[in-house]
Amino acid sequence: MAKQGKNKNGNNKAKHNKLLAQKANKKKTEQEANKKRLKEILNKAKG
Hints:
Blueprint: H1 10-46
């Protein structure tokens, strides 16, 4: 039978998932900012 009551590591798992999501979002925004910066540099070089 399954255990009754609270999930043993529920809080830790939730915190871990939150931190991993923060890390992924940070990396994604940094990559977007880098692409934007490179596009601006290329446009200045062309213009």
